[in-house]
Known about the structure:
Blueprint: H1 2-23, E1 26-32, H2 39-55, E2 60-66, H3 74-79, E3 85-89, H4 112-127, E4 137-143, E5 147-151, E6 165-167, H5 172-179, E7 183-185, H6 192-197, E8 203-207, H7 210-213, H8 216-219, E9 222-225, E10 234-239, H9 241-245, H10 249-258, H11 261-284, E11 289-292, H12 295-317, H13 323-335
Parallel strand pairs: 1-2, 1-3, 6-7, 6-8, 9-11
Antiparallel strand pairs: 3-10, 4-10, 5-8, 5-9
Helix pairs in contact: 2-11, 4-11, 4-13, 5-12
Amino acid sequence: MKHFLQGCVAASAIAVSALAASAADVTLTISSWAPPTHGMNSIAWPAIIAEIEKATEGRVTAEIKYGLASPPAQYDLVLDGAADIAWIFHGYTPGRFVATKMIELPGYDGNAEAASVAYWRAHEKYFEALGEHKGVKLMGLMTHGPGTLHAKAKVGSLADISGMKLRIGGGVAGDVGTALGATGIRVPAPKVYETLASNAADGVMMPMEGKASFKLYEVAQHTYTVPGGFYRGSFAMIMNPDSFARLSEADQAALDELFGEKVSRIAGRMWDTIDGVGAEALAAHADNSLTEASAADAAAWQELTGPIIAAVKAEVAGLGLDADEVQAFIAEQMAAN
């Protein structure tokens, strides 16, 4: 019955979206690389589309399309105008983004909504002038919940991670894997299931939402966590500037009010929601397990994070920013939300 009702709600949302698209003056194309069932496509984008329609009094809407490009190619897809809007994971394009690593650092205390809002505020205060998102219009920034380790075999301690082959998305997560003695395998999130099912990897670094979103309860039944998470993933929602410029001045002004912190908060709240769904999926399967780091491992993890954090700060300092100040600002803003 639960699945039937969810299907009815999804069908209704699609029908309403189709009606809105037919009535709107402009329908923007959103490129998405996660499956339709992922929270980004089933929760966040529908909520953002509804806010776009509300802000523009129905004149502008958007629709999600799949398979337009691989996850790492989403930025260039929007840059070239092949899609109006997309969402990107900064770690998929090493070297292109540096300041974004500041939100990925382990050690922040708070959920994804608080982190996403703090991230946007840090962007406005520190990162925007760096021009790392050159050529596109930022709609919002977000981070998923605390990163965890999901493995095929039970992991009882940090020491067990050494020597494992782990799918790692990139960014600070890659530095974490190296520090733990794991061998990193770079594949986009949609390829995680088959990578684990084929035994090409022993596990994956992902937030708890992956248990449900990518069916890790089937191929990575055992989850290991550390306080605050191993890392946080950094994402952006981007728009082609020419697509934005083609809108009326009134609609541009309305969307400028929406884009930024409001969109970031919507997206962050979605990650918290699907982390909860992932935790439910873990609990619902008897062959799945959850192991929390012991006090000794938690202390050892804190020591391991020192060099990781120092290395990222050095990179960010090379951009002319006070990395200690940025880190403190993010932590303060997270505590305030």
